[in-house]
Amino acid sequence: MLGAVPRLPILNETIRNLYYHVPLWWAMMFQMGISLFYSAKFLKGENKQDERFAYNAALVGILLSIPGLITGSLWARYTWGTWWTFQDPKLNGVAIGILIYLIYFILRASIIQETARARVSSVFNIFAFVMFMLFIMVFPRLTDSLHPGNGGNPAFGKYDLDNNMRLIFYSAVIGWMCFSGWLLNILNRISLIKSKIDD
Amino acid sequence: MFNQQLLALIKKEFTLEFRQKASLGGILVYVVATIFISALSFNKIIVPEVWNALFWIIFLFSAITICGKSFTKESGGAALNNYVLYKPLTFFTSKLIYNFIFLLSISLVTLFFYSWFVGYLINNFALFILVLTLACLGFSAILTLMSAIASKADNNYTMMSILSFPVLIPVLILALRVSRQAIDGLAWSVSADFLLILISVNTICIVLSILLFPYLWRA
Description:
Chain A has five helices and no strands. Chain A has helices spanning 21-45, 48-79, 89-110, 114-142, 163-198. By secondary structure, chain B is mostly helical.
């Protein structure tokens, strides 16, 4: 973690944030993908457990987005000189993403009848995920991002990242994804036990 | 698709709308009053950026008000009746087409009063109308689905607006971009890329909402 890193302008030592910030967001997207998968599976197969799994995955995703946001914000303070900016499409995309999942939780909480709740929130989850992805993919084409690797900023390119860093980075990605999978597994087991007790 | 049932359903929507003159009049007054207030508040600071942003914000709120009530009438006995009589595809398409026509006419009224009260700054009128039509299409697809979702939740109206805002953003941002170019009177070739993206986003919205609606229908 404290190994040698390439000296790049602006980034300097903060490049180590790559080990935390980027994998956290990848893990978040990974969990949201799982949530989408379970929502679709529920609509196909009508198994209530799938819908609970989708909810749990979204919960883990939101949980990961909090440290992702904090590490990004801290990093931005030292490189861009500000905690938050509305000029960057990735920041806007993240804000929209978090908003969408908070609304998903509110929607899910506001319907009392169980089957209706499961169906309605699955439909919203699928639609919202696609719109979120569209936003992430379309919006950066319209404006340049301030993020490293975009718009001529250094880092993450072929020539910027040395092999030592790449090794740690990819293991961090795998590590955070496994961690999120472990959290999801625990939550899923809790909801399985709960549903067994209810029955 | 274009069968008797679909046409009959669309006709039914219009008949119901014109029978309740208060709700149609209410929306018109709402739009005109909002524009009048903006004309007073933004008295001397109307530059193209502000004009554009203000227009789309007014459009956004009137669209949510218009499409938000798509499914409020369809509850209890009426819902059961529809469920037995129609296919979800026909039913949803009729709502979508009706919302689209209604939204487009209201947005043209909005454009007329907005240009009158606030000022007329558009240089490429045809492009602006095209963007407005595409935005109406995308908005009606998204809002019809969201209103179907909101009708299942408890506090319908609040739910409708919070569900819609984040999912409308991709279409809204694209429309804002292209309409800005229409105001500046740029050539069509400049906007071609954005128009293509807007059309594909619209297509995705329509297909997705048609695919997902049957699941709500059964609930």
